[in-house]
Amino acid sequence: VQLVESGGDLVQPGGSLRLTCAISDSTFSSYSMGWARRVPGKGLEWISGIYSDGSTYYGDSVKGRFTISRDYAQNILYLQVNSLKPEDTAVYYCSCLGVWGQGTQVTVSS
Prior knowledge:
This protein is an all-beta fold. It is 0% helix and 50% strand. The protein has strands spanning 3-6, 10-11, 17-23, 33-38, 44-50, 56-58, 66-71, 76-81, 90-96, 99-100, 104-108. Strands 2, 4, 5, 6, 9, 10 and 11 form a 7-stranded mixed β-sheet that branches. A hairpin with a 2-residue loop joins β9 (90-96) and β10. It starts with a strand and ends with a strand.
């Protein structure tokens, strides 16, 4: 399986983006999946997950601002990121069963 993220960009504080993770194998799209991010010089932070039963998880740093969703028909995982802050600047990765994408860069700066 391959996971390909896109949607990262340079945005101003308070802005929004929709990150997309395209899944090459449709059989994986029903498994639990999630998003993590890496800030330069820091470790990987698990920020959101969506599970096979439809339940979701959000880390405290993104709760109330980010929304995870999936399109089973298109085999796509989304992360809607709103009210962005400079500290959200990171490379964002999607993951499923230990497989990771290449990441997409989100930069929040005025």
